Amino acid sequence: MDLGIAGRKAIVGGASAGLGRACAMSLAREGVDVVIVSRTPENIEKAAEEIAAATGANVTPIAADITSDEGRAAALAACPEPDILINNAGGPPSGNFRDWDREIWFSALNNNMLASVFMIKDTVDGMIERGFGRVVNITSSAVKAPIGILGLSNAARAGLTGFVAGTSREVAKHNVTINNVLPGDFETERHIDNTRAMAKLKDKDFEEMRQIRQGLVAAGRFGDPSEFGELCAYLCSNQAGFITGQNMLIDGGKYPGTF
């Protein structure tokens, strides 16, 4: 399927690895000019080289912290009129809520809620003026099924979800959509780190905990980041203009609910 977005411009956060990188790769394959952002220069530059080599697309690496004012300014300087915005930042640490002070809470809220809100604020009016915009926020399946040791993430991402629920409906008439994609268990470094934390909490070894987690997924496996990237690219397509304000769960059937 031709998604109709060749020649569009995108900013993708947290794109040196994992789900962010997968989104950038899928968009680049569709002919989108992609600005990818991550904090470590060598990692983001390597990702840009690999994505460009695989797709032939224009890929611009920006070494910056997308959760800071300076990082957002750097991304927007490289792509001042994005048609597509993929909000993504590393999740906060796991642990016990009794150990988290105000500073840790503020950091989580900034990184996983406010940073996305500010990027939307800085880009959505331009999208409205141009008559096309696609915003995808990478959140977490924990929005629907909270995980105890991920309390910081549960709270911050739920806040972003509430913001999107209202804002997406305000801008939809201008062909600007805002959606959240909720990943379940994907083979990423973040997932590995969480598995280690769970293993420690349950007094199990890593491989045993990995098998336990995999057994909870109806598909019987963890997701490949490329599967996530393809869903993201579709939500950014011309064909997806009637999808907005949604929380798209992609978890291999792990979530047991009907809704």
Tell me what you see in this structure:
With 259 residues, the protein is α/β, with parallel strands linked by helices. It has 2 domains: 9-184 and 225-247, NAD(P)-binding Rossmann-like Domain (Rossmann fold), CATH 3.40.50; 186-222, no CATH class. It is built from 8 helices and 7 strands; from the N terminus they run βαβαβαβαβαβαααβ. The chain has helices at residues 18-29, 41-55, 69-78, 102-130, 151-171, 189-202, 206-215, 225-235; strands spanning 9-12, 33-38, 59-63, 84-87, 133-138, 176-183, 247-250. A 7-stranded parallel sheet has the order 3-2-1-4-5-6-7, with helices on both faces. α2 links the parallel β2 (33-38) and β3.
Largest sheet: 7 strands, parallel
Which CATH-level-2 architecture of the largest domain? 3-Layer(aba) Sandwich
Strand order of the largest sheet: 3-2-1-4-5-6-7
How much helix, percentage-wise, in residues?
40-55%
**Which shape, going by the Cα principal axes?**
globular
Structural class call reads alpha/beta
Number of helices: 8
Unreliable stretches, pLDDT < 50, 5 or more residues?
none
The string of secondary-structure elements, in order, is EHEHEHEHEHEHHHE
Strand runs, count: 7
Strand-residue fraction?
A: 5-15%
Average the pLDDT over all residues and give the rounded result.
Answer: 96
| Cα end-to-end separation | 28 Å
CATH fold-level topology of the largest domain: Rossmann fold
What is Rg?
18 Å
CATH class of the largest domain, please?
Answer: Alpha Beta
CATH superfamily of the largest domain: NAD(P)-binding Rossmann-like Domain
Total separate domains = 2
